[in-house]
From TrEMBL:
It comes from the Bacteria. InterPro entries: Peptidase_M4/M1_CTD_sf. It comes from Mycolicibacterium komossense. This is Peptidase M1 membrane alanine aminopeptidase domain-containing protein. SUPFAM superfamilies: Metalloproteases ('zincins'), catalytic domain (SSF55486).
């Protein structure tokens, strides 16, 4: 996407033009995106369209939970271009928090532009300023900023690759793997800023990296001291969770409470600095797939940065729905910091703090630069730690389900087919709920090899009595003799081969049935909550 912005330092307003090239997914329909600014002109594939053709619609999640939907269907797997011209002003988002977004004149010929993202408030990511997809998508942005009417030099601070032209023009490149939660930008008069740059080498790499630390000139922070803190925190976190994958870190002390994480950067206060730096691994290393998945990175980062000790979970505490699964919820649940961090402390008590740390390190190693959903996190933790009772913790303190009245009746039925897709070996697994059981709100199917090693997991939701569900699972090459078991709150079968046995047939580029003597009486799709 290419975006050109012209800011008027006299009025604090701006004009923008964005050109989006987009590729539809596997379904025909009306594409959606978001932008919290006033659109004036629209072109679709080079043809002028009414601005109402990309109007905002209410998605039922509160006054600031809106999206834009193109008023015409487009074909599956098709490629299109949309060009928008729009006015740039304070975004139509929830502007709560200590450091909200700002675009305003700060004096004659002086302007401030702060992206001001915030996870806890609706519509507070890149869509505030630039047309954007929801957080599951990855896309690059070429941003050109021109300032007119300025009476003094201005400085642009960003985590993108910055090229300066004239004193009043900047070009910023944000990479293709960024999502809508990644971008950092601060524009202020140069004489209002103080700056320190330091170069360090983080073990185990000997490659030098740059730390840039900024503040308003009247800020109380000692920038050299804070730069040293950043270096120490990066070093410790790299030792715990794997190498820092960037060649710089950019920090802006904004003079307010709290902070906000960006890829390789933060706008923060000294008290929140450690928390925000650790987010370089979880939140802006491995990224939440949706706003409802934002709980896990805040929860784990709070657990790490605050040094919470392992402690057993209190299952008499009220259930908490940290992940609603609603696709258009546009904020992170605030209980992520409290209930969520205690959840990770509880898992550390269950599996051991070091086992949990290694599991999260492997998560970052395998998923850095990619998005992660809540169910994918649950599946990874169970497979990596082999602690199937993690199901219990997610059931009550992530999905918000109360205790079931009796043991869940869901059981593994069969592996019905295996095939290869895009080089990955996939299996279709069937589970069934007993006719006399209650609805199973949340369960996890675990496949283990003959040595008891977990080779694959899948999460399901809301399976009624007497019904079956089909789950797709990724299998490693050479899988055979797999044991399947379904785990749910208050039900953790042994998974002994004599009780849960499946035969797997693996042939490349073919689909082969692998059915045991049992068959389900009905079939229904597995519900996906998170």
């Amino acid at each position: 996407m290419a975006v050109s912005v012209v800011l008027d330092a006299r009025s604090g307003a701006g004009q923008a033009e964005a050109v989006m090239h987009y590729h539809l997914g596997p379904h025909t329909g009306c594409p959606l995106f978001d932008l919290r600014q006033e659109v004036d002109e629209v072109w679709i594939d080079g043809r002028s369209a009414a601005r109402e053709s990309v109007g905002s619609i209410d998605v039922g999640e509160g006054p600031y939970a809106t999206i834009r939907v193109l008023d015409r269907p487009q074909s599956a797997d098709s490629i299109h271009t949309m060009r928008l011209r729009y006015r740039l002003a304070v975004p139509r988002s929830d502007l709560g928090g200590a450091y909200p977004p700002v675009l305003a004149s700060t004096g004659v010929g002086r302007v401030r532009w702060s992206f001001g993202m915030g996870d806890l408030f609706d519509g507070r990511h890149l869509e505030m300023w630039i047309p954007s997809n929801l957080p599951f998508d990855h896309f690059g942005v070429e941003l050109r900023v021109k300032l007119v009417g300025a009476s003094t030099d201005h400085t642009l601070i960003t985590n993108g690759r910055l090229t300066c032209g004239r004193a009043d023009e900047w070009s910023v490149t944000f990479p293709e793997w960024f999502t809508s939660v990644s971008h950092m930008l601060e524009l202020r008069p140069a004489d209002e800023l103080a700056h320190v740059r330091t170069t360090v080498s983080l073990a185990p790499s000997s490659h030098p990296m740059t730390i840039d630390v900024w503040k308003p000139t009247d800020g109380a922070e000692n920038l050299r001291h804070e730069a040293a803190r950043i270096a120490r925190t990066l070093t410790v976190a790299a030792g715990q969770f794997g190498p820092y994958t960037h060649d710089r870190y950019t920090c802006f002390f904004h003079g307010a409470d709290g902070g906000m994480e960006y890829v390789a950067g933060t706008t923060t206060s000294p008290g929140a600095l450690t928390h925000e730096v650790v987010h370089s691994w979880f939140a802006r290393g491995v990224l939440p797939a949706r706003d409802v998945d934002g709980w896990w990175d805040e929860a784990f980062t709070t657990y790490v940065a605050s040094g919470l000790p392992p402690a057993p979970l209190d299952f008499t505490a009220p259930p908490t729905e940290l992940c609603s699964g609603r696709p258009f919820q546009r904020h992170t649940h605030p209980a992520a910091y409290t209930v969520g961090s205690k959840l990770f402390a509880g898992m550390a008590h269950t599996v051991g703090a070091e086992v949990l740390r290694r599991a999260m390190r492997r998560l970052h190693t395998s998923r850095a630069g990619r998005t992660l959903s809540t169910t994918e996190l649950e599946q990874h933790l169970i497979a990596d730690t082999r602690a199937v009772t993690i199901v219990d913790a997610f059931h009550r303190f992530v999905y918000g389900f109360d205790e079931p009245r009796r043991d869940c009746g869901v059981r593994f039925e069969r592996l019905s087919a295996t095939h290869t897709e895009h080089g990955r070996k996939l299996a279709t697994a069937v589970v069934v709920n007993d006719p006399d059981a209650e609805i199973c709100r949340h369960y996890v199917l675990v496949l283990s090899d003959p040595l008891g090693r977990i080779v694959s997991t899948a999460v399901g939701f809301d399976l009624p009595p007497g019904r079956s569900a089909t789950l797709r699972m990724r299998l490693p090459a050479g899988s055979h003799g797999l044991t399947g078991a379904v785990h749910a709150r208050l039900r953790h079968p042994s998974g002994h081969p004599s009780e849960f046995r499946a035969r797997v047939v693996m042939r490349l580029n073919t689909v082969d049935a692998a059915v045991d003597s049992r068959s389900s009486t009905s079939s229904s799709p597995a519900h996906t909550k998170c």
